[in-house]
Amino acid sequence: MNGRIDQLFREVAEKGMSRRQLMQRAAVLGISASALSVALTQVSQSAMAQGMENPLGVDPNAPLDVVIFKGGYGDDYAITNNALYSKLYPGAKVTYAGTQRLQEQYQARFVDGNPPDVMDNSGAGNFNNTTLVNEKQLTDLAPLMAAEAYGQPGMTLADSLGAGTQDDGMYNGTQYVLNYVYTMNGVWHNAALFEKNGWEYPTTWDDMFALCTTIKDAGIAPWTYQGLYPQYMQAVFDEVLFKAGGVDAVMKLDNLAEDAWTQPLVGEVLAVLKRLYDDGFIMKGTEALSHTESQAAWLQGKAAFIPCGTWLENEMKGVIPAGFQMVVNASPSLSADDALPQTAANISAGETFIVPTGKNPVGGMEYLRLLFSKEGGKAFSEATKSLTVVTGSADGLDLGAAFASAQEGIAAAGDNTWSSRYAGWYNDLKEETQNQFGLLLTGQTSVDDMVSTLQDLTNQIREDDSIPKFTREAPSATPAASPAASPAASPVA
C-alpha cells in the first residue's frame, strides 16, 4: 500500500493533478478513501504544497528569467504577474525585461543554450515559432495544460481557456505555444466625428468609396495605414476575401493551393484596396509613417479610417484627444454576392507565449499558469482594455467605447471569424506579401503583377521539400476563430 501511495504522490507532483483527479487516480491504484485520508494527513507540508498548491512542482528558490514584448499592450500586466509570482515564491529572483525586437536581442542566448525561461514572443522582429519548434528549442506545455488553473480548484488550465484558442499553437499534436489575447482586427473611426457630420459607417465597398469622396471634399484624408508595416492592410485583405469567398477562398492561401492567389476573388479584393490609392483616398505621406505615427495622425483628425487590432487604444492611450470616440468595425463587404455577412470578421487568439528549453522551464510554465488565470486575465483587460482567452476573466468590466465596440463586433461575427496562417507559417511568404502590399498601396505594382509574384512564390514553397508544410482544415466543431492546424507530413529542417 505504501508503494502505491508513494506512486500517487509522485504522479501528483509530476503531472499536476486536481483534487478530483487525485481521488480518481487513487481509486485506480486501489487506494481506499480511508487510507488516502490518513496518507494526506501524514505527508509533509512541502509535499502537499507541491501536489496541490504547486501542481507543476516549481522549485520555489529557482531564479526566473522573464522577457515580455512591450508593444501595443505595454507591460503593466506583466509587472503585475511578476509580483504575483514573487509573492508565491519569495525565494525566487525574477529577472525581467520589457522590450522589443526580440530576435535581435536574444538570438545569441538561444544559440548558446541560455534562453529566457518564459517569453511573450510577439511584435516585429520576434522569433519564428515554427523554426523554434523544428529546432527543438521549445518546451512541451502538456504539463501546464493539465495542471489545475490558478484560482479555480478542480479545473485544468486547458479547460479554463476559450475553446479552440490554442489550436494553432500545436505542432504534431504537441502544445508548444499559448495564445493570450483575443483580438479583433478591423477598421477604426471616430464615432464623435461621424455623428457630427452625419456620416454612417459603410457596410459595402461601394458605400465606402462614396463616403470617402464626401470625407475628402470635407478636407480630411479618408484613409491612412501603418505605412512602414503594410501587413495592417493585409489583414483587411484577408477579412474581405473571407467574407467574399468563405472559408474555401482563404484556406487556399494557408494551404499553398495552385490557385491560392490566382483565384478571381483575390484579384477583385486587391483591386478594391488599390482603388484607395488610385482615387487619392490615402493620406499623403502615409507610406513613410510608422505604426504609431500614422495612428497619431488619425487621432489628430487627419484621416477618417485606419486598420488595426484591438490593442490600438492601449498603444495610443497617452495621446488620445478628449472626446475622441474610437470604435472598430468589421470591414465592408465586397458585394451583395458575398458568401458571408458583413459582420464576418478577422478575429483571432494571439500574443504568443513560449517556454524555451532553458534553465527553469517549470518556472516558466508556472508563470504562464498565473498569467492565464482569471486574476491575470482581469488585470490584463483592466490595463489594456483588451480581452484575453481566459473564460470569464472580463465579466462585469466596463472599459469604454473601444472595448465595447470590439465585444459587439465579436458577438456580431459569431462563428463567422477567421485568422490566416500563411504569413506565420512561411517566413518568405510573410516578407513578400508585406512587400507587395506596400507596393500596391503606393501604385508601384499592379494587381496582376502582385498576384503573379505571390503565386510563383507560393508554388516554390509548396514544391520545396526542405520546407516543412502545414495543413489548414476547415472548422467544424472547433470555433472558427481559431481552426485546428497541424503540420502535414514533410521533412523537418
Query: In percent, how much strand structure appears in the residues?
Result: 5-15%
User: What is the total domain count?
Assistant: 3
CATH homologous group name of the largest domain = Periplasmic binding protein-like II
Kindly state the mean pLDDT as a whole number?
A: 89
Rg (CA only): 24 Å
The class by helix and strand makeup works out as alpha/beta
Largest sheet: 10 strands, mixed
The number of helical segments is: 21
CATH topology of the largest domain: D-Maltodextrin-Binding Protein, domain 2
CATH architecture of the largest domain: 3-Layer(aba) Sandwich
The tally of strands reads 14
Helix content percent band: 40-55%
Task: Specify the CATH class of the largest domain.
Answer: Alpha Beta
Oligomer designation: single chain
First-last Cα distance:
49 Å
List low-pLDDT spans: 43-51, 477-493
Which geometry do the CA atoms define?
A: globular
In a nutshell, what does this entry contain?
The protein has 493 residues and is an alpha/beta fold.
What are the main properties of this structure?
globular, disordered C terminus, D-Maltodextrin-Binding Protein, domain 2, 21 helices, 493 residues, 3 domains
Describe this structure in words.
This protein folds into 3 domains: 2-39, no CATH class; 64-180 and 350-397, Periplasmic binding protein-like II (D-Maltodextrin-Binding Protein, domain 2), CATH 3.40.190.10; 183-347 and 418-485, D-Maltodextrin-Binding Protein, domain 2 (3-Layer(aba) Sandwich). Helices cover 45% and strands 13% of the residues. The protein is built from 21 helices and 14 strands. The protein has helices at residues 2-15, 19-28, 33-42, 45-53, 76-88, 102-111, 129-134, 142-146, 157-160, 191-197, 205-217, 231-254, 264-278, 291-299, 312-315, 361-371, 374-384, 401-413, 422-425, 427-440, 447-463, and strands spanning 64-69, 94-99, 118-120, 170-171, 174-175, 177-190, 221-223, 303-308, 326-329, 345-354, 387-388, 417-418, 470-472, 485-487. Strands 1, 2, 3, 6, 7, 8, 9, 10, 11 and 12 form a 10-stranded mixed sheet that branches. A two-stranded antiparallel ribbon has the order 4-5. It is globular.
